Amino acid sequence: MFKKISFRRLINFLVLGLFTFMMVGACNAGSTPEADTAASTENCRMIQHAAGETCVPNNPQRIVVLSLGALGNVLPLGVKPIASANENAGEFYPYFPEDQVQGIETVGDPAQPNIEAILNLKPDLIFGWGGYDSEGIYPLLSQIAPTVLYHWQDDTWQDVFRFAAEVLGKQAEGQAVLERYEARIQELKAALGDRYQDKTISVIYFYFGRIGSIVKNSPQAMVLSEVGLQRPEAQDVVVEPWGYIEFSEEEISKADGDVLFVVTFTDDDEKFLQQLEQKPLWRTLKAVQQNQVHVVKGQHWNAYDMMAVNAMIDDLFKYLVGTP
User: Fold this and answer.
1) Can you give the CATH number for the domain in which 237 is found?
2) What range does the domain containing 253 cover?
3) What is the pTM (predicted TM-score) of this model?
4) d(CA 168, CA 79)
5) Region label for 232, one of left (φ > 0), alpha (ψ between -120 and 50) or beta (otherwise)
6) Is 130 in the same domain as 237?
7) Is residue 203 part of a domain?
8) How do residues 277-306 score in pLDDT, each as one tens digit?
9) Is 177 inside a domain boundary?
10) Three-state secondary structure call for residue 177
């Protein structure tokens, strides 16, 4: 569900947008950056996206992304944005290599990006997910620079990554990254052999005291399927649009499997797990009885970007194969 912007904040945005329009108009005889670029398609490419059509510069140098998910898709392409909106309280996710994110500025939360900060950075491209309220402020963002938004609900994570490569003109680099991913999948399958051929892999998460599971149409389940790992029957279903189910403690049997990955996001989730471990129903789970419960981080087990997927594969090697 998209987060709504308050009326007062909207007015501020509109005032800032008008200021931006006037400033750009004074410098460019009444045209906007996006219109200027579109006027000469020799220097840009037309891209269809979630909010319309934009002429994207052929070689953007000052890129602002609107979420950490977008950041996790552009970094593997060899592109380092100058700034990113950040949904993790201003901290980059642990699976981002520190040397790759060092120096990237934070420009607010994806739900309410800091328009003034973005304006001051003078970007030549703004790129990100349109699923917060980005579409609501798209007219303002596009006054600052060519802006491209994407959705992921109807696409696979590979589709989203390919789109990022297309927007940045990095299709060859994107294909090479996907080929390395496929090679890792084959390497993992070979390392697993047939040891999990008749076993099920359960994945559940704890989030604000709720219990849930990813299902067949989630990115993580798609990765498990590519590796050839089976899911418990209760989790091997398709749920639109988000790809997850939730259940109560009394329905904990839906978490049963030969191996159980428990996805946590906060210290409170860890405490919730500790409380659950003391209850009789938890101890009825096969994975618990066989000491096959593995706690993993929600930041990359609940994301759609290439870097998160690779971090998930690292966990599968670590816990299912026994190699780091």
Assistant:
1) 3.40.50.1980
2) 192-321
3) 0.84
4) 8
5) beta
6) no
7) yes
8) 999 999 999 999 999 999 999 999 988 899
9) no
10) helix
